[in-house]
Amino acid sequence: MAKEENYFVHESSYVDEGARIGPGTKVWHFTHIMPHAVIGSDCSLGQNVNVGSRAIIGNRVKVQNNVSIYDDVVLEDDVFCGPSCVFTNVINPRAFVERKAEYKKTVVKQGASIGANATIVCGVTLGEYCFIGAGAVVTKDVPAHALVYGNPAKANGWVCKCGEKLNSDLICPTCGTEYLQREGLLEGKEQH
């Protein structure tokens, strides 16, 4: 347990010396945070989460149960990781070959959501506010606001910052935000 904590750590969890956790963060049952891990403020880490020493978690991130955030995984602010989603950090693992010097960085940009049981192969970047469907296997970069699912994950539309799928006119049916598509990427036309 942390000293002089301004965050919550369940008594069944371990926070190793040197880990940094921001105020208002909640660490639930059977979670292990390794030394030097960085976790922002107002986060929620569910049951049975593991955070590696070189992992970085931004502010207001929600990590559901049974997720391991390994070394060299970066979750920016407002990211959602669904139950049992999987990150990797070695592209070609072998039990008998040491590959720690070959870890590949994975970056999940602000506001992205990863569905339950999705697998994120190391070395990719998930763009701002993208949405990874449950069970997807992501093997390459995902553009901002893209909706991807399947194995391997493929683009199947666009999502608004608020999380709703955009209609064919690239207008959010919920909040009314309009988007433009340029060179295969999405950008906001107006903000509400």
UniProtKB/TrEMBL annotation:
Transmembrane segments: none annotated. CDD domains: LbH_WxcM_N_like (cd03358). Belongs to the transferase hexapeptide repeat family. This is Hexapeptide transferase. It comes from Spirochaeta lutea.
